[in-house]
Here is the input.
Amino acid sequence: MTDNRHMGIAGETMFVEDRGQGLPIVLLHGFPLDHRMWKHQTELLAQDYRVITPDLPGMGRSAVPGELMSMERYADEVLALLDRLGVQRAVLGGFSMGGYLAFALLRKAPERFLGLLLANTRAEADTAAGRKGRMQLAAALYEHGAAAARDAMLPKLLAESTRREQPALVEELAGLMGGMPPEGLVQASLAMAFRREAVSLLGELALPTLVVAGEHDAIAPPDEMRAMAERIPGAAFGVIAGAAHLAPLEQPAAFNRLLAPFVAAALSSS
Here is the structure.
């Protein structure tokens, strides 16, 4: 059963795909993407669980915020969404920007989450050079529209083998990214640029955690993700062979082989 809903939150409209029944799993997408990046994970998990995949404000089918966003404000909107959906506790997953948002959620409401997936993400704040790059991208988005994010990000997201062997995926992603609201991407760029570091949070995490890296990921390299996992008490760590940054879409079967037993274990221990 698929239930697509528009949820009004804080005066904005937030689109969410809400599929399946049972214990809830919330999956947060990356930049410049939307809930569709989780399609393979949703298809699998919705057979046994309730899978909630929102479009973050200003991306996908969600309205562009009228005020400047921050990771904390994204987190407030996700928590408000969960309240509207009647979800008190859930497994939380975040990919890339969604991982930054997951850290913000865990600062605000750690009691609401039963397990944590961190996929292709980092705990460090941006460097000065990283912030400058995001601000330059924000300016380019105003000048050239969503194509600026598509052209900047698509080559970084996929492994060379993925681009060669999965041309349909490359085309799908190009269309998805090119259709994003430019100003929503500006908001996300600035929120990421000025996000808080989460390294100091890692040792305090007290929930089952799975950290997943891509073998060829230059944005969140596997060695750095392994080091992050080692700072989280009891965290499991895995590397997806043949994937770069967009591991859940590049190698979904391998990704799901790590994710499914983790979710089952996290929810069974709740």
Observations:
- The chain has one domain: 2-125+196-268.
- The longest strand covers residues 2-9.
- The longest helix spans residues 128-144.
